[in-house]
Amino acid sequence: MKKIASHGLILLFALSVVFHVLVLCSVIPFTIVGGGRITTQEEMYGVETTVLALNLLFLLISLLVTGYIKWKFSPRILTAALWVMVVVFLLNTVGNFFSNSYLEKLIFTPITLVLAVFAAILALDRNSQQPEKTNQLKFSHRQIKR
Length: 146
Known about the structure:
It contains 4 helices and no strands. By secondary structure, the chain is mostly helical. It has one domain. About 5% of the residues have low confidence. This is DUF4293 family protein. It comes from Rufibacter glacialis.
């Protein structure tokens, strides 16, 4: 499941980047994004630039977590970033339910839910891999003399 989640995040974020570039270039009408509440071209540029930057950040985090990019980052920071992504995409899913755009509601509600689930799978996997910290002393059978 981890492999599906990691590749799924990368694929969905890459496709999302392409989608938002197409919206910025006016190939895709901006009326289907932003909950259908964006009314002007200037408003669209502000919103879509922010959304594009966030998607690029989330793509970078996904590439770091999966090891496709090998930069030194604290595992705790990457795990925390995944949990932030879970929250962001769950909130986005709820927001999509209230979208004025039928297409956004139909297409992007399930996508953001899948993104939240994939990020949660990876975050839970990372939590289970981190060593448990305890104050107990651990001895091997060789260290204990009877």
